Amino acid sequence: MSKDLQEYRAQYLARIKSQLLGADLGNAGATDLVMQSALLRAHSLVSSLDLQDIDYLRDMNGAALENYLQQAPNRARFEQQLASASVMPSIVSSAAIMAAVADSPTAMASVAGSAPAMTAIVGNAPITNLLVGNATAMKAVAASAVAMVAVIASPAAMAVVAVSSTAMAAMASSPTGMAALLANASAWTSVVSSPVAMTAVAASSVAMSALLANTAAWSAVVSSSAALAVVAASSIAMAAVAASPAGMAAVLASSAAAAVVAASSIAMAAVLAVPAALAAVVASSTGMAAMAASSVAIAAVLASPTALAAVISSSVAMTAVVASSTAMTAVLAAPTAFAAVAASAVAMTAIAATPAAMAAVLASPAALTAMVASSVAMTVVASSAAVSAITASSAGMGAVAASSAAMTIMLNSAAARGAIWASATALTAIQNAPSAVLDALQTHPQVSMMNNNPSNLTAAFVSGKSMTLRVKNANGSDTNYMRTLAGGSGTGDDTFTTTNAWVPRVRAYNNLCHYTWSSNFPFQAYVVNMN
Q: Where are the bilayer-spanning segments (predicted)?
């Protein structure tokens, strides 16, 4: 016995079908044929009534509908109803029915695969809103190219989807959904303009992979600081960007985009972890300018030995670093980092070529000490325009004069010798240098001993520029007269008293000669040829 009309119709149709298919039409008489015709008309009429009946859908929730559709005949009936132009509108316009459909993966797959059904749905705001808030429903929609065409074709539906975290999570995790969004400029603009949508995209490796493979779509993101900030805040998204040469190139080509990435510790960690991405950054003047201006980015670089090594090996990168007070302040505050900088000829060349950067080093006791202790750094400085800055700095020359190694490097350079000779500050620092430093300098190739007896007093000992280090008499005390003071020591004659003990006397001369004395004691001096 049937429990409802639906079951009755099913049993009735089955019985008619059985009789129709069991008939022997080849041997049927006229009466039999009339009977078969009547059965066919009855089957058609009842089938039509069955197709029109959607009340059974109103009585089921999602779980019940899903269970119902697991039977092939039931699913076939549901799909026939969706395919019926007269029945489908009644299904998709019913909030009660669609609530159950939205919770049934099987039902939603059928709905999403029906262009007429999806067109009707996106034209019905309440039903659209119902589906957009349902994860099961949106998963089916995102997986269906047919459904995506309908959604994207409706500006109203797309606007709702773009601000729904549920809908966008489904889209972002679906290759089909992402492909549809990326292929439509208007739809993608809606996504890029929505923080909700971009958050979903940035959280999905599927979405990011598809996005980075689409140059135009990625350019739209890069051009939007708000959208790119969402990407930069996602470790998943930035891992994908850092692994994409084209993706990184687009970011580094834009100062605004590079600044967004540089401001994010998550983004910087991802970029610095990928060798190719790091190489792209240090080779980009635009990218490095943004990085150097960001305390976040510089902190990340300084915390990574690999990243720091890449930066100090790149003239492009170091040019950006030395031009940024933010970067230089951070570098100078990190002893280990500055030690690495001082050991790099590339890095020190950039510093030496930038007056502000050199001034910052000279103003930092720790950095100055590290620079003076580095033969690489001192060799660069001694042969560059920066030598004028260091010889004019009391702190700078004090540190240099306290190091025999640094002083040796300075005296090896004609530019440095000239700068020292012309600087009263430098001469004073050397005058006050430790004895050990002066001891070491006495054997420098530029140094010789002036040993004047009465027979050669008036001859010029060094033509041009010279500098004395130490003076004494062979015995006794004597008043000495030397000429001509020059450079950092001023002008005129130099008069001083000596004993038979070596004492520092650092003075600059031009055409040095010991022209007279008060007693007849041989005069001796260590003299540096400063030409």
A: 82-102, 108-132, 144-172, 192-213, 220-243, 249-282, 289-312, 332-353, 360-381
